[in-house]
Amino acid sequence: xxxxxxxxxxxxxxxxxxxxxxxxxxxxxxxxxxxxxxxxxxxxxxxxxxxxxxxxxxxxxxxxxxxxxxxxxxxxxxxxxxxxxxxxxxxxxxxxxxxxxxxxxxxxxxxxxxxxxxxxxxxxxxxxxxxxxxxxxxxxxxxxxxxxxxxxxxxxxxxxxxxxxxxxxxxxxxxxxxxxxxxxxxxxxxxxxxxxxxxxxxxxxxxxxxxxxxxxxxx
Length: 219
Prior knowledge:
Elements: H1 3-15, E1 20-24, H2 30-38, E2 43-46, H3 49-58, E3 64-67, H4 76-79, E4 85-89, H5 92-104, E5 109-114, H6 128-139, E6 146-153, H7 161-181, E7 189-192, H8 198-203, E8 208-211, H9 213-216
Parallel strand pairs: 1-2, 1-8, 2-3, 3-4, 4-5, 5-6, 6-7
């Protein structure tokens, strides 16, 4: 068994069957991704559109590609034909563009709203009220080719576990509010937790984690 396959097996055993593991494959070669694929993995996440498109063209078509990085509106059209889930909807302008391109591609696209929870100005995301307002507009049918599946957030990059936990618990509370406010929407995904903090995220209620270095090793 390869190191990548061993890492995947170890993480899967830790997180259980009800958590989706997205293997963050940015900067990883097609060969490395295929190692994970041949170990049975299908969910892969990319941060950059150009790299995502190039890999999607080369690799097996049953891979479920996740866009997990900041997405510019002018790049949306390149991923709409095949993307499985966009984690990083952080503005109404971006949501409008996804709707436009999804309609053009004649498909429905699953999305997560990215909520700003970190104490870092360089990170992106909606505040709590903006998140609920966009969810309401989706609920009203203003974006018929978009399906809201849940929320994504990134905690502060810090060694302070209590701070990380506080941020994740806040995001879980927004997620719970979303679920209770819109019970008829297919909201079932809380994407939080990466290689350095996913055990905390799981304790706080995450059911989707985005893990790169713990699978593929450091760049």
